[in-house]
Amino acid sequence: MVGIGLICAALIATVYQSTAERIKKLKAEALEQAVYQVIPGMKEKKTFMVNNEGEVVPVQDGSAPAELIFAGYGEDGRFLGLAIQASGMGFADVIKVIYGYDPQKQLVIGYRVLDNKETPGLGDKIEKDEDFLANFKALDVSLTDDRKTIKNTVTTVKNGQKKNAWEIDGITGATISSRAIGAIFQESTQKWMPIIADNIQVFTNDTSLSHGQ
């Protein structure tokens, strides 16, 4: 029995080692595609990170920061927006998403689910339901005048009860999953929007832009 157990363990380890690199590659490719999907019209990408001083800087070759932010540019090099990853607990497991953000309009302009283990046919509607996806074409995440926090709490409401641009119209039958998305957006935008406002010139290459202008 011990010998069989050792053989099984060795087989599992071999399979994991042989597939881990491919899984990593596929996830990287899916992320790359998603970045372009959440920023309409994007043709070029630059990758940034937040350093230990809280400054946004370009990612250097060989570095592997835990959190990345992607800047998207059009064919003419014009800055179009940012792609930001976020995650939070859903009904079954952690949900990972990526969303596009337009700093000039202070709106979320796109959204894709990167990893989702929610119930098939119900919870997985957060990545398939067209009405739900429409919430993220112009979701209001505007900042207060001092740019320290977002003005309104991003929250999911019952299906059909959305009245404000910062609300997410939920999915009937997938209440927990759609509420989880609202919580993910609230936490992520509360964190990232002030950082982006303080560092907007880094993405636009326009040194005339600064905090408070």
Question: In which order are the strands of the major sheet placed?
Answer: 2-1-3-4-5-6-7
Approximate strand percentage: 15-25%
Q: Uncertain regions: pLDDT < 50 for 5+ in a row?
A: 207-213
Secondary-structure element string: HEEEEEEHEEEHH
Could you describe the largest sheet, including whether it forms a barrel? 7 strands, antiparallel
The gross shape turns out to be globular
Helical amount among residues, as a percent range? 25-40%
Count every helix, treating DSSP H or I runs of 4 or more residues as helices: 4
Question: Total domains, how many?
Answer: 1
Terminal Cα span? 71 Å
Count of beta strands:
9
State the assembly state of the protein chains: single chain
Mean pLDDT: 87
Determine Rg (CA atoms, Å): 20 Å
What's a concise summary of this model?
This protein is α+β, with helices and mostly antiparallel strands and 213 residues long.
Describe the structure.
The chain contains four helices and nine strands; from the N terminus they run H-E-E-E-E-E-E-H-E-E-E-H-H. It has one domain. It has 213 residues and is α+β, with helices and mostly antiparallel strands. Helices cover 33% and strands 24% of the residues. A hairpin with a 4-residue loop joins strand 5 and strand 6. A seven-stranded antiparallel β-sheet has the order 2-1-3-4-5-6-7. A two-stranded parallel ribbon has the order 8-9.
